[in-house]
Amino acid sequence: MDAINGLAFKNMLLAAARHLDQHRDRVNALNVFPVPDGDTGTNMSLTLNAAIKELEQANGVEIRRLAALLTRGSLMGARGNSGVILSQFFRGFSDGLAHVETEITGEDLAHALATASQTTYRAVMKPVEGTMLTVGRVAAEYATEASAAGAGALEVLQAALEGARAALADTPNILPVLKQAGVVDAGGQGLVYILEGFLTGVTAAPEELEQLLAQANRQPEGAAAPKLEQEVTVNRYCTEFIILGNGIDALAVRRELEGKGDSLLVVSDADVVKVHIHTDHPGEVLEFCGKLGELTEIAIDNMRLQNQEFASHEESHHLDYSVGNNVIEFPNSAVPADPKPLGVVAVVPGEGLAEIFRSLGVDYVVPGGQTMNPSTEDLVKAVSSVNAEQVIILPNNKNVIFSAQQARELAEKPVAVVPTRSVPQGITALMYYVAEDSLEDNLAAMEEAMREVKTGEVTYAVRSTVAGDLHIEERDIIGLAEGKIAVVGSSPTEVARDLLKKMVDENSSVISIYYGADLNAETAQELNELIRAEFPDCEVEVYHGGQPLYYYIVSVE
Amino acid sequence: MGRIHVVTDSGSDLPVELREQLGIHVVPLTVQFGDEIYKDGVDITAGEFYARLKRETRMPSTCQPSPADFVEVYERIAEPGDTIVSIHLSSKMSGTYQSAVLAGSMIDPAITVKAVDSRAASMGIGLCVIAAARSVQAGKTVEQVLEDVQQVIDGLQVYFVVDTLEYLQRNGRIGLASALVGTLLNIKPVLTLVDGQVAPFEKIRGKAKALKRLRDLAEEFRQRHPGKALRAGISHADNQAEAAALVEELPAILGSDHEIVVGEIGPTIGVHTGPGTIAMFLYSI
Questions:
Q1: Does residue B52 surpass a pLDDT of 80?
Q2: Is CATH 3.30.1180.10 correct for B157-284?
Q3: CA A481 → CA A38, A426, A450, B75, distances in Å?
Q4: One domain, residues A133 and A66
Q5: In the β-sheet with A415-417, what is the strand arrangement from edge to edge?
Q6: Best of A265, A272, A277 to disrupt the B interface by mutation (most B CBs within 10 Å)?
Q7: Start-to-end CA span in chain B (Å)
Q8: Is A407 left (phi over 0), alpha (psi -120 to 50) or beta?
Q9: Residues B185, A432: C-beta atoms closer than 8 Å
Q10: What is the DSSP letter of B227?
Q11: Which candidate, A222, A287, B174, B269, has a CA 20 to 30 Å from the CA of B43?
Q12: pLDDT tens column, A460-469
């Protein structure tokens, strides 16, 4: 085959998406870190599927139009760092085909692969070799060489795949972490699957191809996850109030209220106890607490109605997708008054943490984080929903920073990203957020502030591995300091304590503990007492974070 | 030419010795626990007040002196031909200044009352009053005395840390810092005074960090005023230990030419800030 026509091009892309989808779990398994994290295979697959969805609905097989849809779909659908790089790959790939009329020649293909590779390198601030970048670059080099030797499109594609496989096999030699974990680079592997899919798309017999494309697109679990969190709200009323009175036993309040709802927060300070709970029985909660002291600042909101508003709002977004052209329009929500100068969007895992972020002035919380990396489109939509002239995004996860930066490029209003890599960094940055100050002043203050906090996380190992001199078995409890495995143990409480021992030094004054969805307030309280005893010079604060999979997120400042 | 008298209110938190040494007259505000009314510094001491605050479930409140209270003091201390410089709590926070102005129009017209809105509270008023009394002692004219006071008011920087925003909020003195209320995290805000009312300055997690920030702010203030003599006031609400720690470090921060006055936040201000508060007032000359 010397050239690829529009139909073959479309098949090539569809086949790549299906092929990657089928090998998603294998790519996920290449995760270097044994933590439940944003999975590369899932993220790449979701990104490509978002692009393919547009292609599938498109009539006609005009190459330039398909390429434009590919660019737009993947940029908006990009999730996680690997998804963002992949979307940049497709953007470059499409740009490289911009001059193509009806058929992609070998030369065109080599040029497109080269442009794709260059675009990925440009998109990354500090390109790291031994990753998807290298795999894409070597693929382009092999393709260019083949094309220069007069190869047709098929041969160029074969050469590209050969180059990609060679580069992938070499990734453990370039990045020691891969060698140590005994894996090749996950993103690179994903790209190899895509190139394999390309090849299948242009070489497979029609019936074989039909069979492949007919296979139901598995809906990866990650895709539905961000929505899920909006829907799990079973307790209807967000109930908040303050109890005034001396000597109220906050722990007793917590114990009593624990059975009455979720997202419980009981914060006490001298003669004031602040209560926050999601409950179906706000009356009972008030009745009980009213016996302990004077109640004040009572606020009860029906979250189910709020969620419905949110859901219908979401739907209207979907309805307004104009698939026919290259513009995606998002209607403004009911357009309230004048926009304020500055707003904040934060990506936050867990309802407890979401409440905390809202209370610190965040306008829009995008659920997600460690395992559910929101897509660029989720972030663009969030930015649109905030009635502000300029918007700051707090990604709060290293695997979301890149999508946030991509959202900045695609949003229709000025967006700035404070590259917070963890929830504590996001909280600390918000301490310095002043809605009345300029965007520039806020960015300077927030970026400086976020460095002042140390982040720790307690989760479990998703597979056995060796990290430095630590031997980790699957399901072991592990503690990470600043994203690096520092402690291994068998109980979240012990691991959290040992982790904090490593994090706290003579300059530390505040320890904050955000406990996850899998723990209850009492367990967290036990840790609280343990930590107070261990670090008498520090103030220790415990909050319900509600984040999935991570027993504790802790911070030291 | 008559004499010049300096009058203030109990919101100035001046130590008794200094008041006596400089001949300053203090008109008390009243503090109420329910129906029980106490004159600040007359019927109740700071120590008694904070002890009571811990036991009480009712929130105390304050009441400004009536114009008659001022008239009584003005007429007792001044002779016809005298002038009274009467320096008071920020008019944004209290009606005390208004009472003083009214009293000035009610007394013997031969006595002149110059009421001054300090736009501050606690030792912020205290520093104005000290400057006024010293100018009087130095034999300056009324105009010069008022000018000296105005310089303090214009140059004054105020930073304070409260243990909880609850007291400011419940007493309606939260001012521009109301945005900080409702935060789920336990935040120790550093507050300031802007245009005579409470405003947020920074949100800080943990008292220790907030107090360290006060030291840094003193350092920054010195850097903004190179070569100037610095005057500092520190006041605390039932928090001798943390105030002493700050006062101990200040001389090294403020440089060779400085003066530090330390006072205890009395009931008048303590009702609004709550116990634990540490406040720092700075100006340069």
A1: yes
A2: yes
A3: 18, 16, 15, 70
A4: yes
A5: A364-367, A340-348, A388-394, A415-417
A6: A272
A7: 29
A8: alpha
A9: no
A10: T
A11: B174
A12: 998 888 877 8
Distance separating the N- and C-terminal Cα atoms of chain A: 63
Please compute the mean of the pLDDT values over residues A25-51 and round it to a whole number: 84
Closest CA to A132 of A93, A167, A94: A167
A431 in the same domain as A487: no
Give the CATH number for residue A288: 3.30.70
- Is B192 within 8 Å of B156 (Cβ atoms)? no
| Residues of the domain holding A271 | 232-301
Nearest to B62 by CA among B40, B78, B80: B40
Which residue numbers of B have CB closer than 8 Å to A's CBs?
Answer: 54-55, 57, 59, 163-164, 166, 179, 182-187, 200, 202-209
- Same domain as A440, residue A500: no
Which residue from A270, A427, A512 is facing B164, i.e. has the nearest CB?
A: A270
Helices (H) and strands (E) counted in chain B, each on its own, are 10, 13
pLDDT at A337: 63
> 3-state DSSP call for residue A391?
strand
Confidence at residue A263, expressed as pLDDT on a 0 to 100 scale: 64
- Pick among A539, A542, A544, A555 to test the B interface (most B CBs inside 10 A): A539
The answer to whether the Cβ–Cβ distance between A359 and B55 falls below 8 Å is no
Q: Check whether residue A415 and residue A473 sit in a common domain.
A: no
Q: What is the pLDDT of residue A320?
A: 30
In A61-152, alpha helices (H): 63-77, 80-96, 106-123, 132-148
β-partners of residue A513 are A542, A554
Within-domain flag for A321: no
Q: Which residue has the higher pLDDT, A271 or A6?
A: A6
- How far is Cα B19 from Cα B14, in angstroms, rounded to an integer? 6
- The per-residue b/e assignment along A90-108, b for 16 or more CB within 10 angstroms, e otherwise, is bbbbbbbbeebeeebbbbb
CATH number belonging to domain B4-29+64-154: 3.40.50.10170
d(CA A56, CA A249): 61
Lowest mean pLDDT among A74-88, A271-285, A533-547, B142-156: A271-285
What is residue A268's predicted lDDT score, i.e. its pLDDT?
61
Is residue A314 included in any domain, yes or no?
A: no
What is the pLDDT, as a whole number, of residue B20?
95
Residues A11 and A160 occupy one common structural domain: yes
Same domain, A247 and A212: no
CATH number of the CATH domain containing A50: 1.25.40.340
Hey, is the C-beta of A265 within 8 angstroms of any chain B C-beta?
yes
In angstroms, the CA A117 to CA A123 distance is 10
Domain count, chain A: 4
Co-location of A199 and A241 in the same domain: no
Structural domain includes residue A482: yes
CATH 3.40.50.10170-classified regions of chain B: 4-29+64-154
Domain with CATH 3.30.1180.10 in chain B: 157-284
CA B195 from chain centre, in angstroms, equals 15
Residues A474 and A529 in one domain: yes
pLDDT at A307 over 80: no
Beta-carbon contacts of A117 under 8 Å, excluding residues fewer than 6 positions away, are: A89, A92, A133, A136, A137, A139, A140
The answer to whether position A327 is within a domain reads no
Residue A145's closest CA among A137, A70, B224?
A137
Confirm if B14 and B2 have CB atoms less than 8 A apart: no
Q: Is the pTM of this model over 0.80?
A: no
Model-level ipTM above the cut of 0.90? no
Q: Which amino acid is at B212?
A: K
